[in-house]
Specification:
172 residues; mainly alpha; 11 helices; elongated; Pentatricopeptide repeat-containing protein; repeat
Length: 172
């Protein structure tokens, strides 16, 4: 695969150039080029994973998001799941529940970053009961946790609940 003039100039050896190219490909809908570049990248960071997840989700490729999840798992863990969860809200509740089950079975259900991502995912899906359950199950809540749940309730027309949550946040 050709990465335009960057290969000729040797710029494809730069991690940030690879990420910029990847982001450009997926935003332009050139998913095949983006996937090829992603697969060939020797180093993948948070921006890399997020670009692919966004690209797949924006192009209606929900099954590919789950495949990325499996790649993250194979690469050494669930640290990238937060990005997947955040994007799954717009893709599929079923895939999101699968990610949640895997988080729980891996013993990472108390991980605040993953819980924040789950709150965000369920809020995007409009499942405010599950949003609240994940939030209430967190032993420590950060500003991110509070923002996600307040925003979730607010965006779905539960302004009064959002204000109550805000007041609770202020008190804590």
């Amino acid at each position: 695969m050709s990465f335009h003039c960057c290969v000729k100039l040797g710029l494809n050896l730069d991690f940030s150039v690879d990420n910029c190219l990847l982001t450009m490909y997926v935003k332009c809908g050139a998913i095949e080029f983006g996937t090829d570049l992603f697969d060939e990248m020797p180093q993948k960071g948070l921006i890399t994973w997020n670009a692919m997840i966004s690209g797949y989700s924006q192009n209606g490729l929900a099954a590919n998001v789950l495949e990325l999840y499996k790649k993250i798992e194979a690469a050494g863990g669930l640290s990238g799941c937060g990005y997947i969860c955040a994007h799954l809200g717009a893709i599929s509740v079923g895939l999101g529940r699968e990610v949640e089950r895997r988080i729980e079975s891996s013993g990472l259900s108390l991980n605040p970053f993953l819980n924040n991502a789950l709150i965000n995912m369920y809020a995007r899906c409009g499942n405010l009961v599950k949003t609240r359950a994940v939030f209430d199950g967190m032993p420590v809540k950060s500003a991110v946790s509070w923002t996600a749940i307040i925003g979730g309730f607010g965006v779905h027309g539960y302004g009064e609940t959002a204000v109550e949550l805000f007041d609770e946040m202020i008190k804590t």
